[in-house]
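Hi W., the S-adenosylmethionine complex you wanted:
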Amino acid sequence: MGRARGRKARNEREAGATSPDRGAQRSAPKTASRGPSNADGGEKTGLQHNERLFEAEVLDGLAPICSEELVRLLGRQVRVFPSSNPSSVSFEYSGDPAKLLGLRTAVAVFRLLYFKVPHPLTIVQGANLPRLKAAIAAARARERFKTFRISAAGSESKVFQKIKNAIASASGLANDEQEGQMSIRFRRARLRPFGWDVLVRLTPLPLSARAWRVENMPGALNATIAAAMVLQMDPRPTDQFLNLMCGSGTLIAERAAICPAKRLVGVDNSREAIAKARKNLARVASLTLLEQDVGKLSLQDGSMNALCADLPWGRLIGDRNKLQGCYEEALREMSRVCSAGGMLSVITQESALFEKALERHREYWTLDRSLRVKQADYKPKLYVLKRRSKAYSAEA
Ligand SMILES: C[S@@+](CC[C@H](N)C(=O)[O-])C[C@H]1O[C@@H](n2cnc3c(N)ncnc32)[C@H](O)[C@@H]1O
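Structure:
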């Protein structure tokens, strides 16, 4: 609602669904205690020629959740490297790279090549160029690429013009700096103190573009954030999933893509939003969409066990008193319809308002986790809460 969130073109092939492994979901991601060259037995054998390094680009704040998703999706085949960078996750992975396209919390995935060279031009010379050529060829074997673009500090320089020419003649791809399908990044090495990294994106469009989205809505939630919220709720096929204020249905679409549910319910008081959700969720099974006010749900007490809401906030709402009333009504109904032990995931920029409302209902909820996520110019707060066993009482 009223959020000036940036929107990119959508309609990309939807990333593959994954089956959840409940044990893996809540456990901390397995991270390498040291850098990849050490883990590989030393510099002689390690990082410089390690063709199993990858990097996931994420929205700021989602790195820990993407690390968890990597482990959930790929298990023992993946080793996540510790990093202080909030918008990327570097990892070593020994399986089929096509599986990486199933990541739902990543904006994009790149193959990461490290070159122990002082200057980027050396990367397209001598024995180095075949490594880069092979990485480009591997990406082309899975996806259709005809053009490439380079991003780097100084990418307009004469040196980078030579690099672009060398890549074009080695790969057969045409250089198109505006619309290039294969994004290739050059940067100073991050995992080592010396050298250069080259990152080759595995897909022409970002993974965050979703094929299910046929109807957009101003203020719709970024799909990678929606996936992060859903994954935090430990999805299972037995779930009775409720998305309050569902808008165009982003959270429901991401929940349905992760694993089946017994029942998926979306509620919104806007007829237009429900119509958009219906189109976006046309292929989702076990779905009920209700045009209802959040304060007067027709659902029975304790009937749902996985709840989520991307609460309204921002300019269109205007009146903060109205917003506070809306948050309190939403929490009251969430407390009522959620079963004991159920999970709730909420996101809002108006964290003070939400926490005030939560304070009134604290007897029903414990806080499992909270974190800030950057999206466009905003940094909304994501909460994961667990329903206590106390039975709901209307007087509370
Ligand atoms: C931030 S938008 C949700 C966007 C949604 N996550 C998406 O990706 O499209 C908030 C939604 O809350 C709905 N809403 C606002 N007040 C409501 C109320 N009292 N009862 C039910 N829905 C409400 C709005 O119609 C809007 O669709």
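Residues 147 and 173 are 5 Å apart (CA to CA).

W.
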